[in-house]
Design a protein that fits this description.
about 350 residues; alpha+beta; 9 helices; about 30% helix; about 25% strand; globular; binds nicotinamide-adenine-dinucleotide; binds magnesium ion; NAD(P)H pyrophosphatase NUDT13, mitochondrial isoform X3
Length: about 350
């Protein structure tokens, strides 16, 4: 089981502790990644997540809760044959991980099929991943995101960038090789810094023009080649809002599947309360402003159900996004500061 410890307020930095089953599951997965034969065997008795044009299949439980659909290999083979897929098509799956019960999990892109017929057979619906984040739990979101990211990486890395020749995958999908140059390509993530800037009583959030209406998030940006996290954070804040930050505190990290798999490194930072005037880079941001604890608390308590349909005036990213974690941590710390102040 994964354990967590606290760094900044309630932040969860996940680390592995060798408690019951975890080490053996990890070793098992390691073997599946590297051993094609073992991986093919595992796929025969696996749980497979389905995607259509990278949208994961969701199902509603009897109690009306949405979950990521997962099928036993044998059942899925029958379903796929009914919609015209070859019985070997299942071998196109990629290894995702394994459940707490050591059942291997794979993801599979169904490609060209009649979507509605497949949805009917599966009793589910393919849902855009961004929308799915509002419908499923954070741990299911992480799984669905990983599945999508792996599928996308394989779709876009079919050719060697040195020779232009096709690359071939290993069975698990943990790498691709160019037979001509011998170059091995591994799935990659781009490091991105994300920072919640505070002036001591307010926090700074921004929005890009492409965000859904009303949504504000923490400042973020891709790391440049050769940069440290600290350098990237200072640069991004200076570039985007013209402020100089100090007191960086690491909060946590997250894989984010958009646009091509980002590795989010999240921190808190402060600015001098006398130097809070923002100077927005309009090429990057549509708006950036300081929010009070009251505004943040209201936004956290009223997450939109479907932001594209009827968005609240101001809202923050869904609970799965690490921006949400930063905002929650800041709000908790502010509450604590206020209650300590009242006691004095
Ligand atoms: N999970 C979260 O809570 C959360 C919150 C905010 C942002 N994000 C993600 O962080 C990522 C980066 O944020 P941003 O848009 O503020 O970055 P940014 O401020 O660096 O601006 C994006 C621009 O940077 C350039 N760029 C430089 N390196 C790039 C690379 N490796 N890949 C793509 N573009 C690159 C491109 O011109 C791009 O338009 C986005 O993918 C966004 O989805 C996640
Ligand atoms: Mg940015």
């Amino acid at each position: 089981m994964l354990q967590s410890f606290k760094l900044f307020n309630n932040c969860n930095l996940v680390f592995s502790r060798s408690c019951s089953g975890y080490v053996s599951r990890t070793r098992y997965l390691m073997r599946l990644k590297e051993d094609d034969e073992a991986c093919r065997e595992a796929l025969k008795f696996a749980n497979v997540l389905l995607y259509h044009k990278l949208a994961p299949l969701l199902q509603k439980t009897r109690s009306g809760v949405c979950k990521v659909a997962s099928f036993k290999t044998a059942d899925l083979k029958q379903i796929l044959e009914k919609v015209g897929k070859d019985k070997h098509f299942i071998n196109e799956s990629f290894l995702l991980g394994c459940t707490d019960k050591s059942e291997p999990q794979f993801s599979l892109e169904v490609g060209e099929v009649e979507r509605s017929a497949l949805e009917q057979e599966c009793r589910g619906t393919f849902v855009d991943l961004r929308k799915a984040f509002f419908m499923i739990t954070p741990s299911e979101s992480a799984l669905a995101a990983k599945g999508q990211a792996l599928l996308r990486w394989h779709q876009t890395n079919g050719f060697c960038s040195a020779t232009g020749q096709p690359t071939t995958r290993n069975q698990s999908g943990s790498f691709r090789v160019c037979q001509s140059s011998g170059i091995t390509y591994y799935p990659k993530m781009s490091p991105v810094v994300i920072v919640l800037v505070s002036d001591g009583s307010r926090c700074l959030l921004a929005r890009q023009a492409m965000f859904p209406p009303g949504m504000y998030s923490a400042l973020s940006g891709f790391c440049d080649m050769g940069e440290s996290v600290e350098e990237a954070l200072h640069r991004e804040v200076a570039e985007e809002v013209g402020l100089e930050v100090e007191n960086l505190q690491y909060s946590g990290s997250q894989h984010w599947p958009f646009p091509q798999s980002s590795f989010m490194l999240a921190c808190h930072a402060t600015v001098n309360p006398n130097k809070t005037q923002v100077n927005i880079d309009k090429a990057e941001l549509e708006d950036a402003r300081w929010f009070t604890l009251e505004e943040i608390t209201t936004a956290l308590q009223n997450p939109p159900r479907n932001p594209r349909e009827q968005p609240p005036v101001f809202w923050v990213p869904p609970s799965y996004a690490i921006a949400n974690q930063l905002i929650r941590e800041w709000a908790n710390q502010q509450q604590l500061l206020r209650s300590t102040h009242r006691l004095k």
